[in-house]
Design goal:
Layout lengths: L2 H6 L9 H10 L1 E5 L4 E3 L7 E7 L2 E5 L2 E6 L4 E2 L1 H6 L6 E4 L3 E7 H10 L1 H21 L2
Antiparallel strand pairs: 1-8, 2-7, 3-6, 3-8, 4-5, 4-7
Helix pairs in contact: 4-5
């Protein structure tokens, strides 16, 4: 299955046309991470937006898993948009295949495709709400 076809099956990209999906797939890199490989390092590396095409990732703070991300979910968006380092490590829990969008390109993608920006914002709001509900 092509990257564009995979993107078309993900909720984040549901409002985009096949032509828009092809453009995104062809203008951004795909990367594969081995089990246990650190994709983002807390306080150090960041700047890219990752969309999980296959596999699972573990969001960890000080070695403790706080959340598990799966196909269709994303990470790195806050660092990509703010330019600040990540606040958690993200580690491949399984073989992990991701679409990787650099921060500057993410901003352009969001501005050029408002329906994508709205869907990302809604997903981010749900994630924040869930995180706040975990607090004692």
């Amino acid at each position: 299955m092509s990257v564009a076809d995979t993107l078309g099956q993900l909720a984040l990209f549901a409002d985009l046309t096949p032509t828009q999906l092809e453009a995104i797939a062809h203008s951004h890199e795909e990367d594969v991470f081995a089990v246990g490989e650190r994709v983002l390092r807390r306080g150090l590396s960041g700047g890219n937006f990752y969309v999980i095409l296959e596999g699972e990732a573990s969001v960890e703070i000080e070695g403790e898993e706080r959340h598990r991300l799966a196909r269709g979910e994303f990470f790195g968006e806050i660092s990509a948009l703010t330019g600040e380092p990540p606040t958690a490590d993200v580690v491949a829990a399984t073989i992990l295949r991701c679409l990787v969008i650099p921060g500057a390109q993410l901003e352009r993608l969001l501005l050029d495709r408002p329906q994508f920006m709205l869907r990302l914002l809604r997903m981010e709001a749900r994630r924040l709400r869930g995180t706040l509900e975990w607090q004692p």
